[in-house]
Amino acid sequence: MKKLLLILLFLAVFPLAAEQGEFQILVGAGGYFPLKQYTQDQEVYIYASYNIPLTIYFGFTDNFDIGFNGSFTRITDTNIKTEYNGLKGREYMDYYHVNLNARLRYNWLPGYIFFEPHIFVGIGDSIENFSNRQFYLDGNKLYNDYKESDYTKGTLNFQGGIDFTSRVWRFLLVSIELVYNHNLKNANYFELNGYIGFDIFLKSYGGR
Predict the structure, then answer these.
(1) Quick check: 45 and 77 in contact, CB under 8 A?
(2) Cα 197 to the center of its chain, rounded Å
(3) Domains defined for the chain, CATH in brackets
(4) pLDDT (tens digit, 9 = 90+) per residue, 47-60?
(5) Cross-strand pairs, 89
(6) Cα–Cα dist 154/27, whole Å
(7) Is the pTM of this model over 0.70?
(8) How far is residue 192's CA from residue 187's CA, in Å, rounded to a whole number?
(9) Do 192 and 163 contact (CB within 8 A), yes or no?
(10) Containing H/E element for 3?
(11) Do residues 183 and 155 touch, judged by C-beta distance below 8 A?
């Protein structure tokens, strides 16, 4: 019990208040959980994968931050139901996408002692790549004459979510976020990311 009280007291010494002139730089890892995803007007079967995000925020007021979020997701053996030369089967492919989004974040309870909550919205581009494409007939037989090239496409993406961020020691930060993404191809998915990062202050902009 004494140890717990000491930890709480230590965290209380370093509250995270959203401050004007503050940069936050966060690098993390997490999970990617699609609800629906499409390519070539076909539903893509993806179950879950890992996600690598990078997020930067700048406090232009004490309550609002502007920021940038980029994330990379890699998935193997993604597949869609399709037909080729009149044959029914599944196309398997390696898939990755890069999300690049501008964000606006609101500091919900600035100065909260532990994990300060924020809500945010974002808009940007989801860049998808499909490679190593193979066609399997029903019955899982590889069709060797299947010749389809790799391709890349970009789609307008919208996102919104919530995060909880805390200062654990001086400039060291930890954060967890839940993000919902939706793009114009009617693909939608969640990301659950954990971060570690640091902050710096721009004194000329009013930072401490």
Answers:
(1) no
(2) 16
(3) 2-205 (2.40.160.20)
(4) 678 899 999 999 88
(5) 82, 137
(6) 24
(7) yes
(8) 17
(9) no
(10) helix 2-13
(11) yes
